[in-house]
Fold:
Amino acid sequence: MAFRISVLPNHLPGHQNPFVVRASKVEFIEYDRFVDLMAQGRTTVTRIDILGVMELLSAELRRLLADGKSVKTPMGTFSLLASGSMSSVDDAFLPRDAASGHGVRVHFRPTQSFEQAVLADLSILRDDRNEEARPSIRAVAAGEEEGDGNIRSGRVVQVKGRKLAFDPKDPAQGLFFIDAEGREQRSPFYPLILPSSVLGSVPSELPAGVYALAIRSTLSWKDLREDRVEGIVISV
Structure:
């Protein structure tokens, strides 16, 4: 097995690089299976013994943390963190009041040796399976080289990525601009449609604002599939 990562478009404003790395969905190990795996290891400790020790560890951690202590283990240190703000130094700290904005949470900080040991054993696998299952938008920009670089109503938008091609005669396929209320407007004209690049006209009646841009296609699949990018700013 390996630690799976995905490379995704970076939609954060002011970003330096067009792509970000994120962890892919990983297998979740339930507690009972974790105990079984420990019991199968090179140890004479039985499963019942492991369950007893784990319950004792949990109970003692809860007691010591509730007493305001920090607890160091071979893997790292457990402690409590407080958060929130106050208008006066005399205001009450109310973490149990959801309206207060105050909070307390349990924090775990791994030891350097434990973290280094995990990283030393780590194998990494790039996971592109999600991209194969749908169109994949990598970048969105104004289609005209001249101008200030803003995407404008009545002009052309350029979308780059993978598996972007679609049938422009099918009204269910193409580029769609989706506002915050979920209302959609389809790009009415496509000067260029390639698997890696699409040029589409921005509807002339589209009001200025922030939209999601979706591309939908059935060319590579039997059913309609979509990828979308949030936070596309349209100017007039």
Notes: The longest helix spans residues 47-66. The chain has a mean pLDDT of 89. The CA atoms of residues 80 and 203 lie 52 Å apart.
